[in-house]
Specification:
heterodimer; A: alpha/beta; Aspartate Aminotransferase, domain 1; Aspartate Aminotransferase, domain 2; 4-stranded mixed β-sheet; 16 helices; about 45% helix; B: alpha/beta; 7-stranded mixed β-sheet; 15 helices
């Protein structure tokens, strides 16, 4: 108690001393000067001093390192010492493998169901000749008459006298076959998708894409600079949740265009997209659908009209349908179809259409004849379906491989059974692909002795798809029972010999 | 470089301004009318918003009948143009069955292989019967036939490079090769007037893109020096590699590229040269081997040579030629090789036969005749047009000659008047050319005879007087705007 009293008293003394000092300073004679009628207290001097100091500091230049642009001599030195990488990386031995060269044999044209490789007669399962129209007489006839009339090339882009009447006829025929108002022809199958997508999807739009689409679509999406969201391969639950998330995040997106891009039969896995589910989801969330029907046009559906007929969905519910004609139609090029607005827009904004020469006229007339043949002969479709079923049942129980594709798809896709575990890491993926390809190549060579030609699916280094590689068998309606039997028996024996112990 | 006379520039700007104003007025009324009618979009965003397709709706549709004219015969020197009529003021055009026989000054038919040829067509039909119209599969799987291998060897020989790779379409060749050769961290320097396929390929690769002034090697050197010294943007690390992309003949200017200077600059600064010979292969040079032969550049100095077969060979498809390692690498990685259907066998046969004719291996001298004819034709036509007072661009020996129109109203006037007098020309406007510099582009072919050209000249002269595009006084000497370059034969 006494201590605290002492402390308080001392403190009070100090305070009193300090305030005495301050009062003294304020009451100093100069501090009482009156200037212009304003009494100046002593505090004004302190403030004035502070102001002067501030002004002095402001007027100092801040330290900036001096700018020294490079002199010519320095630029010369830099240019001399820069060493570029070589244009291509060094050639590894897997790059030296040449593709097998096909020659035609007596019964069919090269790349038909039977062909000759290096003098050996083989059954060809590597050409996507689904309906066996390659080498059909009607197609050859129409091609010959077109060649005699028009020559080979069309010598110009569509805008500058490259539009020949067969092109317009072909577009009208395709539109009539599918039941859409109009269609547009492209001169190459690969360029169809990667020109159509940038014409519609611009920067800022949202596109939801299956992760297993092929390179043409991936490149188109990259060129379009839109926001891309992937969903799990052929997984409708994943699609629904992605759509939900995207709609939630972008509530203000009334002006944003939104697209879903899927393929009908995926080239990388042989699965078929469930179109009725997709249409239901699209209508609920107001997205537009872009469907790539390259492998299902002329194959699925009762009369070959594709995935929409297969699922009984009216075709005007799908906004944009594209397809390459190099598969079932045994021609080349591609087309895109949809409403009038969709097709007309592409005639001026699609770069692969405007800036490139048009399709050679004989290929367009081949496409018209092919569609006529498909319409007149629906039994080709049933034959193809039976062939696929026979092959799949024959391949059941094969050792080390399993069928990853749908039973209706014309591509029978076989993947390694043990691959389901090791595809998680990206780093390991590349290593595994290299290993598996060497394994497959051995399979391929051995198969040649049994005279069946198949090809493993190859991936470019630019491809971003993560689905497993596998052996692809393109079944054709021109394959006979004996061909198929040979195929699955040879595959079974070869797989048993190479992939033993990996079941 | 083109210098526009002041009065012309003013009137052109005024015309575009007027068209723009009218377009906006119409849009305003359209918005009004659409407000009353219920939209049928039902919650979907429209395909084109606002001003995105303003140019198409309000300017292009007015003159739509000048573009995309269908023909019903092969695109030879004379062809049949199908007439179209419109019932709704040019918004949609319907085909009629009437055709009119016109002189073809628009198709890319430099050596006259467009129609059925006496040597090529029988061979093509043979090949069709043997290999059918398409191989239905990619090159790496089942699409390589003996024909494709032979074609690649012949093309490599023709272009004087060790090896070549052939794809089914020229556009895809550029778009798919550039991403393979260069990726993020590299630099692409391209000419400012390069073709859309090169621009697409460059964008798709992910590398940094810089542009140098059209055909100006000094500016290229300046840009190269700056960029090498600076390094990559923001990190300033050195570039991984630099590719300079130029074209042999620029299709909208008709000019030849200044290849010797550009190649020497690239050698000095260790950049790679990519030459796109879409229009020049087969059409220029003493034996048709393109711009390298004409300008005396060694093909070993150009790292990647690319070209198309659509123009001079009358077929379709594109090729890349380079060293053996380059082609091997491309065969392993290029998406156009791995994913796309191989080139159609009859087209391949046409290319083979056309090359044989050009080199004289078919036993006749038709090839040499065609090459001489096209050179003579182009020089004659160009000098006559200049004598008449037109403003013609392009160098000597180049078969592409643009005639400047400038004013947007003269585009349909020129095109329609010429068609009435049975001459079919191609007119090009924005966006393929800059806004002010609309032009009519003439492509001369070896199939044009002297009478054809005289007729064309009289018609163009008449129409030119009518439309008012003779910007220079007739019979004057060469104006300064065109750099006359004497080519050493």
């Amino acid at each position: 108690m006494e201590l605290s009293n002492n402390i308080t008293t001392t403190f009070m003394n100090y305070m009193k001393n300090a305030s005495d000092w301050v009062t003294f300073a304020y009451d100093a004679p100069f501090a009482r000067a009156v200037l212009f009628g304003v009494p100046i207290g002593g505090h004004l001097f302190v403030e004035g001093l502070l102001l002067v100091v501030i002004l002095f500091l402001l007027s100092q230049k801040s330290y900036k390192p001096p700018k020294r642009p490079l002199t010519n001599k320095e630029i010369d030195e830099l240019c001399d010492e820069w060493v570029p990488e070589s244009l291509i990386p060094p050639i590894k031995e897997e790059m030296e493998k040449e593709a097998p060269v096909l020659e035609s044999c007596i019964t069919s044209s090269a790349a038909g169901p039977h062909t000759t490789i290096n003098g050996i007669d083989v059954v060809n399962f590597a050409s996507a000749n689904y309906l066996g129209l390659m080498g059909h007489e009607k197609l050859l006839e129409s091609c010959i008459s077109a060649l005699e009339k028009y020559g080979v090339g069309s010598c110009g882009p569509r805008g500058f006298y490259g539009t020949i009447d067969v092109h317009l006829d072909c577009e009208a025929r395709i539109a009539r076959f599918l039941g859409t108002p109009d269609s547009i022809l492209y001169s190459y199958g690969l360029s169809t998708m990667f020109s159509a997508i940038p014409a519609f999807c611009k920067k800022g739009d949202i596109v939801i894409v299956d992760e297993g689409v092929h390179w043409g679509i991936q490149n188109g999406l990259y060129l379009s600079r839109s926001t891309i969201v992937y969903f799990k391969h052929n997984n409708m639950e994943s699609l629904r949740s992605t759509l939900e998330k995207v709609t939630q995040d972008n509530k203000r997106a009334k002006k944003l265009r939104r697209y879903i891009v899927v393929e009908s039969v995926y080239q990388n896995s042989g699965q078929i997209a469930p179109l009725d589910e997709i249409i239901r989801l699209k209508e609920k969330y107001r997205f537009r659908v872009l469907l790539d029907e390259s492998n299902s046009f002329g194959v699925l559906g009762k009369s070959g009209r594709g995935l929409t007929e297969h699922y009984n969905v009216p075709i005007d519910k799908v906004d944009i349908v594209t397809a390459a004609m190099g598969h079932a139609l045994a021609s080349e090029g591609g087309f895109c179809t949809g409403s009038n607005r969709v097709v007309d827009h592409q005639r001026l904004s699609s770069s692969g259409y405007v800036f490139s020469a048009s399709l050679p006229p004989y290929l367009a007339s081949a496409a018209i004849t092919a569609i006529d043949v498909i319409e007149e002969n629906p039994q080709l479709l049933t034959k193809l379906r039976d062939n696929v079923k026979t092959l799949c049942t024959g391949l059941l129980g094969i050792q080390g491989l399993e069928i990853a594709s749908d039973i209706l798809s014309p591509i029978v896709f076989l993947i390694l059974k043990k691959s389901t575990g090791s595809l998680k890491n990206d780093l390991q993926l590349l290593q595994d692909i290299a290993d598996r390809l060497t394994q497959k190549l051995k399979v391929l060579q051995v198969l040649k002795e049994h005279s069946v030609f198949v090809a493993p699916s190859k991936r470019s280094t630019l491809d971003k798809c993560n689905l497993p590689v596998g052996i692809r068998l393109f079944v054709s309606a021109a394959h006979t029972e004996s061909d198929l039997q040979e195929a699955y028996e040879s595959l079974k024996s070869v797989a048993a010999s190479i992939l033993t112990g990996q079941n | 470089m083109i210098t526009v006379p002041y009065l012309t520039a003013l009137t052109t700007y005024f015309s575009y301004g007027l068209l723009f104003a009218f377009g906006q007025l119409r849009d305003f009324f359209r918005r009004f009318i659409d407000w009353w009618k219920a939209g049928n979009l039902q919650g979907y965003a429209p395909i084109c918003l606002g001003l995105e397709d303003f140019y198409i709706r309000r300017l292009y549709l007015r003159i739509q009948d000048c573009f995309g004219r269908p023909i019903s015969s092969p695109p030879d020197a004379w062809f049949d143009v199908v007439e179209r009529i419109s019932y709704d003021n040019n918004k949609t055009l319907k085909r009629t069955t009437k055709t009119s026989r016109c002189l073809n000054l628009g198709s890319y038919n430099y050596l006259g292989f467009a129609a059925a040829d006496e040597y090529c067509t029988p061979r093509v039909i043979e090949c069709l019967k043997k290999y059918s119209a398409s191989t239905c599969s990619t090159r790496v799987e089942g699409g390589t036939t003996a024909l494709h291998c032979e074609l690649e060897d012949v093309v490599a020989n023709f272009v004087r490079k060790p090896a070549a790779l052939v794809t089914g379409m020229g556009y895809v060749t550029n778009s798919a090769i550039l991403p393979v050769l260069i990726a993020k961290g590299g630099l692409i320097i391209s000419d400012s007037l390069n073709h859309n396929s090169i621009v697409n390929g460059a964008r798709g690769s992910g590398a940094t893109i810089r542009v140098f002034q059209h055909n100006t090697p000094s500016h290229l050197e300046k840009v190269l020096r700056e960029l090498i010294a600076d390094g990559q943007p923001r990190t300033h690390r050195p570039w991984k590699k630099i590719i300079v992309v130029v074209e042999g003949i620029y299709s909208m200017e008709g000019e030849l590229c200044e290849l010797p200077e550009i190649v020497s600059i690239c050698k000095k600064y260790k950049a790679y040269v990519y030459l796109d010979e879409a229009h020049s292969i087969g059409a220029i040079g003493k034996t048709g081997r393109g711009v390298c032969e004409l300008l005396g550049v060694d093909t070993a100095d150009v790292d990647v040579m690319m070209g198309t077969f659509t123009k001079s060979f009358g077929s379709c498809g594109g090729y890349i030629a380079g060293s053996k390692e380059l082609i091997q690498y491309l065969k392993y990685t290029c998406p156009a090789h791995i994913y796309a259907t191989s080139i159609s066998p009859p087209s391949a046969e046409q290319i083979l036969s056309a090359i044989k004719v050009i080199l004289g291996e078919d036993g006749s001298n038709r090839g040499a005749q065609k090459l001489a004819q096209i050179r003579e034709n182009s020089n004659y036509f160009r000098s006559e047009l200049q004598k008449m007072g037109f403003e013609v661009l392009g160098d000597n020996d180049s078969p592409v000659m643009p005639i400047m129109l400038y004013n947007p109203a003269k585009i349909p006037a020129f095109s329609r008047e010429c068609l009435k007098q049975k001459v079919a020309v191609v007119t090009v406007a924005f966006p393929a050319t800059p806004l002010l510099l609309a032009r009519a582009r003439i492509c001369i072919s070896a199939a044009h005879s002297r009478e054809d050209m005289v007729k064309a000249l009289t018609v163009i002269s008449n129409v030119g007087d009518l439309v008012g595009i003779k910007y220079f006084p007739a019979e004057s000497k060469m104006p300064q705007v065109e750099e006359a370059r004497a080519k050493v034969e």
